[in-house]
Amino acid sequence: MAALTRAIESEAGTPPRPNRRPRSLPGWRWAILLITAVYFLLPLWGALRFSGVSAFGAVISEAGFGSSLWLSVRLAIVTTAITLALMVPTAVYVHLRLPQLRRVLDSITILPVVIPPVVLIIGVLQITRVAPSLQSSPYLLALEYVILSMPFAYRSIDAGLRSLDLKTITEASNSLGAGWVSTLWRVILPNLTTALLSATVLTVALVLGEYTMATLDLFQTFPVWIVVNDQVSAQVSVAASLLALFVTWLVLMLITLVGVRNSRRRGGGEVTLFTAAAPQTIGN
Amino acid sequence: MPESTNTVTAPGSRADPGAGRIQSAGRRRPAARAAVRAVARYAGMLPFTVYVVLGLVIPMIAVAVGAFQDPDTGAWTLHNIDIATHGVYLTGFRESIILSVVSAVLPAIFGLLIAYAISTARGRGGALLRQVTITASGVFANFGGVPLAFLFITTLGSSGIETQWLKDIGWDIYAGGFSLYSVTGIVVVYMYFQIPLMVLVILPALEGLKPAWREAAENLGARSWSYWRYVGGPVLMPSVLGATLLLFGFGLSAYATAQALTSGTIPLTSIQIGSFLSGNVIAGQGNVGKALGLGMVVIIAVVMLFYILLQRRAAKWLR
Amino acid sequence: MGANEIAANAAGVDNPEASEAAAGVAVTSEAAGARGGTSVSLRNLTRVFGATRALDEMSLEIAPGELVALLGPSGCGKTTALRIVAGFEYADFGAVLIDGKDISGVPAAKRDMGMVFQSYSLFPNMSAQENVAFGLRMRKVGGATRRKRAAELLDMVGLAAQAGQFPHQLSGGQQQRVALARALAIEPRVLLLDEPLSALDAKVRLQLREQIRTLQQRLGTTTLFVTHDQEEALSMADRVGVMRAGRLEQVAEPAELYSRPATAFVAEFVGTMNRLPAELGGGGTAVTVLGVTVPAQEGGPSSGPVDALVRPENLAVAAAEDGNGIVTGRTFLGAVTRVAVRLSGDTEVAVDVSSAAAAAMAPGTAVQVSIPEGPVLVAARTSD
Q1: Is B306 part of the contact surface with chain A (CB cutoff 8 Å)?
Q2: A contact residues 25-44, partner C, Cβ 8 Å cutoff
Q3: C34: pLDDT strictly greater than 50
Q4: Cys staple from B244: which of A245, A272, B108, B229, with CB 3.0 to 4.6 Å?
Q5: Are C75 and A284 an interchain contact pair (Cβ–Cβ within 8 Å)?
Q6: CB spacing of B154 vs A110 below 8 angstroms
Q7: Is there a contact between A8 and C46 if contact means CB atoms under 8 Å apart?
Q8: 3-state SS string over chain B?
Q9: A contacts of C93 (beta carbons < 8 Å)
């Protein structure tokens, strides 16, 4: 800047005036964000003060902590795997071959958000009465969690696909001799990492926090364990709740950070959970 | 993965059908060929369709059918429906709807403002702000049930920390009629996941507002207010309404949080359904829970219909 | 900008035959004088993004009623300059003056300029007519007057029948015409066009080019037009400014830009240019190329290895047994054929000759390429 200033001075003979620029975020927006932050963070802090830091130690040493957390993690992994394996090819297929179905798919995938899990689990228990082995396996929950995560996962994947010119790169890949599987694996998926990450993040968050179906299906996942343990001590329960939140946050942050680093290397977009924001291009 | 038989772009399809194939294709009637082609194309949707049918449609049908069945004999009856639409259950529906409307509209407004605030933040700081907010939204949108209830009980409960603070500065909210364990309290708690959900859902729509529109409007003499009134607002409205409907559905179907807060002291449909599952059943009313479930699904179906219509309008404009 | 003024202007617009009878380019200065056109002055505009200088003390004077095109490759800063004039971006240093007044502090909404964007700038929730009327609505013009004026403008761009249609129902070319009508509806002091034709197909582009130029001349609006298409710039503008890396390399009328480019970059960016190895002589005032010594154009390097830059139509080629090159190919361009010749030093040149003469020069023919007597543009040799 100094060199520029001097250069202009010497040429024009008059000192240059840097022009004023507008701030990037006007006042009222800061106010909104501040109020929001207070609303969300205050209960967390209040709970922390209530339970005390020592309660965290008590939580971890409680019976069932490890096993229930492990169950939740296993369910999260299975759910995510099934969700991606189901939704990605379907979304790609619809984009490529059945674009008229996109709106239909959109509407179907939004259903699980508004169908009460309570109602869903009734139905599920009803029909699995015929297959007792399935009913007694916790992975039944995973199967249902796939349904629950569909809205979020599909939206992320769909947004990611929309930001690609899918038809063109698929045709290019085919013309160069790649089969369907190769194209999917080597061409489409690598360009979808941001969207896949979003989908994973949302699915994991969902599974780690889902209580209703798990408890009515009589399985002790982590959220269920927190409730069951309520009897022991209020402070421990609150600490467990905070821990649940913290663990989820941690997982999400890790996944997001990995994704952001990867996408920046490849020039991809931000990890936004319902869309893949377009990569920044330098304008002229 | 399925292979289509005749489309040119089908990966892995035979490049040169060869003379023999052309001959045999010529023998089949064109209509049949087209039908086969169509079926093959839709075949790609099979895994998804099967899954949705098994995991969503059939359970829903089971609920719907069970709503009309007598729990002991299996005979068709309207008895369940009758009970489900009267007395404490009717109250439950009314309370649930009121709760859901309020816990949809308020968070919709806040969520929209927050989403707008972060979507227009520029530069590195803006990108970071967006990232943090979106991740936080993802976490909080799924944070509900008992942990959330605990959190609020310790802060806004009758002996909660915030309640104490407010009392210290002279404002006793409980004396003023507020209770965390009332519908009002539930609304306050629901905002914790409804606001983040709104942010997540409305961000794509906000990002669909092309900067060229804003600049064109400015260039023609419009200031912020005029832009929102004539362009931004109308274009965004279908998406906002759709998102609000979504929040309504979400609030209606929420179970765990309300259950943890009220333990059934307030009649809410989702809690009432839950109590049927845990065995709190009067003899002969075993399937009333399914009737209640059916009722919820009907309400939500109506909501979804409007949502779909709104999305169609939004898609037309936002391309 | 009262309603009466608008009505009066509208009446003038209603007589296209009268103004078009005057026809041709002459309309420019007369109309400008009649309406008292606006002059635009860009003074030392500088814009820095971190380490890159998007604009580097760019200065430009635009006379009332003139159409100036900013031409250059992407990243040269032309759009940045336009957006600074419009008020959507701020220059770190420098100022924009309208009729002598510094408008740097004036917000975009108050600058009274009409802008046509590259694409998708029509408001999707409004019909074409409502779009066009929008600027008038912002100026508090009454409903009936607004609609009338919008209808006239749509008629001017040939879209009267589409007044009630929505943007998603219109083709790209139609959308841009509506955008043009919308920008002109407010009778702007300055018209700004940001690569308005780039997103359209070739045929539509040509039609719109003419339409924009005709309208601009009839209304006499001072116009700044940004493009990367040199054909567009040369055919439409009164003057063209070629930009590179934030600086204006040359501002001149199209003909002068073409025949007397000031720098090698301009020479090669505008039209096709041959590069021939050459040697400087006489302290840089003369240059020897193709065995002939001719004067060197002013402003070139005075020492070091150089190339001579010559246009294909300025070279002559004829079949000759002991010539200095061999024909390697021919490209038929209609009246003229571009003959590719490889010279004895392995240099490739393109020479334009009449198609009749080119018929005799099949690939493989030995030919003699020669340059005419006049001054030749010289540039430092680049290692390509």
Answers
A1: no
A2: none
A3: no
A4: B108
A5: yes
A6: no
A7: yes
A8: CCCCCCCCCCCCCCCCCHHHHHHHHHHCCHHHHHHHHHHHHHHCCHHHHHHHHHHHHHHHHHHHHHHCECCCCCCECCHHHHHHCCHHHHHHHHHHHHHHHHHHHHHHHHHHHHHHHHHCCCHHHHHHHHHHHHHHHHHHHCCCHHHHHHHHHHHHCCCCHHHHHHHHCCCCCCCCCCCCCCHHHHHHHHHHHHHHHHHHHHHHHHHCCCHHHHHHHHHCCCCHHHHHHHHHHHHHHHHHHHHHHHHHHHHHHCCHHHHHHHCCCCCCHHHHHHHHHCCCCCCCCCCHHHHHHHHHHHHHHHHHHHHHHHHHHHHHHHC
A9: 4, 8, 16-19
Touching A (3+ Cβ pairs <8 A), the chains are: B, C
Q: Which of A62-76, A159-173, A247-261, B66-80 has the highest mean pLDDT?
A: A62-76
**Structural fold of domain B80-318:** MetI-like fold (1.10.3720)
Domains and CATH numbers, chain C: 3-259 (3.40.50.300), 274-371+376-380 (2.40.50.100)
Beta carbons within 8 Å of C364's beta carbon, 6+ residues apart: C326, C327
A282 inside 8 A of chain C by CB: yes
Q: Which of B246, B105, B205 is nearest to A107 (CA)?
A: B246
pLDDT tens-digit profile of A186-206? 888 888 877 888 788 788 888
Establish if B297 touches chain C: CB-CB under 8 angstroms.
Answer: no
* Shortest Cα–Cα distance, A268 to chain C (Å): 21
From CA C360, how far away is CA B317, in angstroms rounded? Answer: 60
> Which residues, including other chains, have CB under 8 Å from residue B21's CB and lie 6 or more apart?
none
What ipTM was estimated for this complex?
0.74
Q: Does the distance separating the beta carbons of C57 and A11 come in below 8 Å? A: yes
Interface check C4 vs B, CB under 8 A? no
Confidence category of residue C154, pLDDT binned at 50, 70, 90: very high
Chain center to CA of A49 = 29
- Mean pLDDT for the stretch of residues C115-137: 90
On whether any CB of chain C is under 8 Å from the CB of A13, the answer is no
Predicted TM-score (pTM) of the model is 0.75
Cβ distance of A284 and C80 shorter than 8 Å: yes
Q: Name which of A16, A282, A284 is nearest C76 (Cβ-Cβ).
A: A284
**Contact assessment for residue C273 and residue C354, using Cβ atoms and an 8 Å cutoff:** no
Domains of chain A: 47-266 (1.10.3720.10)
Q: Which chain C residue lies closest to A282 (C-alpha atoms)?
A: C75
Contact between chains at C123 and B231 (C-beta distance less than 8 A): yes
What mean pLDDT do residues C62-85 have?
A: 93
Domain limits of chain B? Answer: 1-40, 80-318
Residue of B221, B223, B319 with shortest CB distance to C168: B319
Q: Which residue has the higher pLDDT, A215 or B235?
A: B235
Between residues A177 and C308, the one the model is more confident about: C308
> What is the tens place of the pLDDT at every residue in B220-279?
999 888 999 999 988 888 888 888 988 998 888 888 888 888 877 888 888 888 787 777
pLDDT band at B73 (very low <50, low <70, confident <90, very high): confident
pLDDT band per the 50, 70, 90 thresholds, residue B13? very low
**Predicted pLDDT of residue B284:** 67
User: Which chain C residues touch B231 with a CB distance below 8 Å?
Assistant: 123, 125-126
Q: Are residues A114 and B304 in contact, defined by beta-carbon separation less than 8 angstroms?
A: yes
pLDDT band at A19 (very low <50, low <70, confident <90, very high): low
Task: Determine the residue among A11, A14, A19 to mutate to test chain C binding: the one whose Cβ has the most chain C Cβ atoms within 10 Å.
Answer: A19
- Mean pLDDT, residues C253-257 taken together: 93
* Neighboring chain A residues of B260 at a CB cutoff of 8 Å: 227
